């Protein structure tokens, strides 16, 4: 369970509010977050694992205060970025997954086996020794996901995980994400994907503008972006 | 993408089975030896041995060929200078040395997994663990290797973009995007490391003193600037504290 308690973010140097104090309790297994560019979606979801600290209020994950129990929270919360290249550190696929496992599995052989399992789960079993640079964008995102899931988080936060992918990979990664046995919080510009969640939050101008039924949320967001006229008159 | 250690392939060759410390020691010893020895015959002998070792690791053909051809060109140019001065012995010695060291370095890269290298770096760093946790040093080493080709790539793309806009000889049009994108890449990588909990491995065993320092830091972090919070790589992730 993720709990925002009046959590807000301001840039102290400029005093600009990036996220107004927000209170949310997320218990649904699939939550999507949509909204215009620069609205504050990434800021909101980065609060969940402490990548950005709240400047007011607090965020709790399973009762743990993110500000005080950062490392513990990050062990529960996996994070998938838009660009997998920035998330991958090691030269080959298996080594990158093994890096994730360094902390949890000390025995080398055991770690290798666990990493292989994680890769196989993502359908990358035959890519274990391949250089990361020679993987396709979609395969790289799967690899990043394998690295995140290898340490068995119970929550997965994904910030536009399919934005850089082609149509086929987008469908594949999207379906895969939804099938995972974790609570998924997904920021996306793919409204079809957003509508498949159980709950959708629309963020606009640093605040929650809508929170509730996905289909309604998508409608709300379209109206917000284009005004009510667009659906009757072509632009 | 060119990765310095992207050469590694899982194989069953003698060098693959040799421990990383042995290979690094061999590389160091060979380098010292070829610098000390300046008779062409022994240089040629060492070169032949190194080339054989390289072949024995069954390295990926294309990358290896490119690297060796590049080395041959440099060796040929260097020899040419010495030949022009009439010093054929030195010409042979210098180019054989160069080829030997590069070939052996490639052999080590092709037969040593990055993780084995990291473990070695971590082990070697044990004596200075008070200053820098060995795990952190190993990670820094990996990040360095990770960053080099990335920066090269960013530089190439920036150059192409500058050319496309007609800025062929404009240094600023090249340096600005290269610098900002490099910093951007570093920040993203830092965030990812932080998010993956890498470098936090010392957690369970950390001393009480450190824990106290950390909790003070994180409460300070709450009123830290937002821009600082976007740089966990610089502030926390790979930094000295959480590792
Ligand atoms: N370090 C910072 N200092 C000041 N302002 C910032 C900082 N980081 C982000 N912002 C601003 O906060 C706002 C929200 O950013 P955020 O990245 O959360 O938006 P987003 O909804 O994820 O947008 P996008 O869809 O483009 O990813 C933006 O206007 C951005 O410019
Ligand atoms: Mg964003």
Structural account:
The complex is a heterodimer of chains A (235) and B (243). Chain A is an alpha/beta fold and 235 residues long. In chain A, strands 6-7-8-3-9-10 form a six-stranded mixed sheet. The relative contact order of chain A is 0.17. Chain B folds into two domains: 99 residues, no CATH class; 72 residues, no CATH class. In chain B, α2 packs antiparallel against α5 and α3 packs parallel to α5. The C terminus of chain B is likely disordered. At the A-B interface, β1, α2 and α3 of A face α7, α8, α9 and α10 of B. The complex binds adenosine-5'-triphosphate and magnesium ion (MG).
How much of the sequence of chain B is in beta strands? under 5%
Can you tell me the residue ranges of chain A where pLDDT is under 50 for at least 5 consecutive residues? Answer: 229-235
Q: Spans of chain B with pLDDT under 50 lasting ≥5 residues?
A: 202-243
Largest beta-sheet details of chain A: 6 strands, mixed
Q: Compute the gyration radius of chain B: what is it?
A: 23 Å
Q: Radius of gyration of chain A in whole Å, from Cα?
A: 19 Å
Overall morphology of chain B: globular
Characterize the biggest β-sheet of chain B: none
**What ions, cofactors and ligands are bound?**
adenosine-5'-triphosphate, magnesium ion
Structural class of chain A: alpha/beta
> Which secondary-structure class do the elements of chain B indicate?
mainly alpha
Give the ordered list of helices and strands of chain A.
EEEHEEHEHHHEHEHEEH
Mean pLDDT of chain B: 75
Q: Averaging pLDDT over every residue of chain A, what do you get?
A: 91
β-strand amount of chain A: 25-35%
Helical percentage of chain B: over 70%
Report the strand count of chain B: 0
| General shape of chain A | globular
Note the gap between the termini of chain A: 42 Å
């Amino acid at each position: 369970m993720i709990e925002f308690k009046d959590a807000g973010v301001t840039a102290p140097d400029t005093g600009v509010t990036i996220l107004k104090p927000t209170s949310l309790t997320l218990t649904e297994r699939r939550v999507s977050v949509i909204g215009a560019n620069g609205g504050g979606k990434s800021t909101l979801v980065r609060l969940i694992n402490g990548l950005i600290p709240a400047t007011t209020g607090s965020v709790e994950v399973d009762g743990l205060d993110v500000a005080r129990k950062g490392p513990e929270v990050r062990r529960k919360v996996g994070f998938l970025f838009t660009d997998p290249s920035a998330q991958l550190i090691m030269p080959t696929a298996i080594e990158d997954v093994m890096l994730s496992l360094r902390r949890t599995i000390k025995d080398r052989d055991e770690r290798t086996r666990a990493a292989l399992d994680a890769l196989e789960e993502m359908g990358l079993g035959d890519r274990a020794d391949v250089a990361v640079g020679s993987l396709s964008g979609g395969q790289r995102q799967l690899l990043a996901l394998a690295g995140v899931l290898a340490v068995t988080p119970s929550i997965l936060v994904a910030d536009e995980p399919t934005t850089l992918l082609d149509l086929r990979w987008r469908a594949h990664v999207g379906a895969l994400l939804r099938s995972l046995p974790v609570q998924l919080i997904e920021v996306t510009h793919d409204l079809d994907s957003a509508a498949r969640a159980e709950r959708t939050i629309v963020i606009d101008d640093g605040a929650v503008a809508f929170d509730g039924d996905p289909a309604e949320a998508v409608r709300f967001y379209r109206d917000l972006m284009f005004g009510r006229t667009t659906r009757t008159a072509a632009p | 993408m060119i990765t310095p250690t992207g050469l590694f392939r899982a194989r069953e060759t003698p060098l693959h089975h040799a421990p990383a410390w042995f290979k690094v020691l061999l590389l160091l010893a060979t380098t010292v030896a070829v610098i000390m020895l300046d008779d062409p015959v022994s240089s040629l002998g060492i070169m032949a041995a190194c080339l054989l070792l390289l072949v024995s690791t069954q390295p990926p053909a294309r990358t290896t060929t490119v690297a060796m051809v590049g080395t041959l060109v440099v060796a040929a140019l260097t020899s040419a200078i010495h030949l022009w001065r009439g010093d054929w012995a030195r010409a042979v010695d210098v180019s054989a040395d160069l080829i030997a060291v590069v070939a052996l370095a490639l052999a080590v890269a092709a037969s040593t997994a990055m993780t084995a290298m990291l473990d070695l770096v971590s082990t070697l760093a044990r004596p200075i663990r008070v200053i820098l946790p060995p795990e952190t040093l190993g990670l820094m080493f990996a990040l360095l290797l990770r960053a080099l080709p990335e920066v090269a790539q960013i530089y190439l793309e920036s150059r192409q973009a500058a050319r496309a806009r007609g800025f062929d000889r404009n240094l600023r049009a090249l340096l600005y995007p290269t610098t900002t994108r490099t910093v951007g890449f570093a920040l993203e990588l830092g965030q990812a490391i932080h998010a993956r909990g890498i470098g936090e491995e010392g957690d369970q065993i950390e001393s009480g003193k450190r824990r106290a320092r950390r909790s003070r830091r994180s409460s300070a972090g709450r009123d830290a600037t937002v821009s600082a919070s976007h740089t966990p790589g610089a502030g926390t992730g790979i930094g000295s504290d959480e590792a």
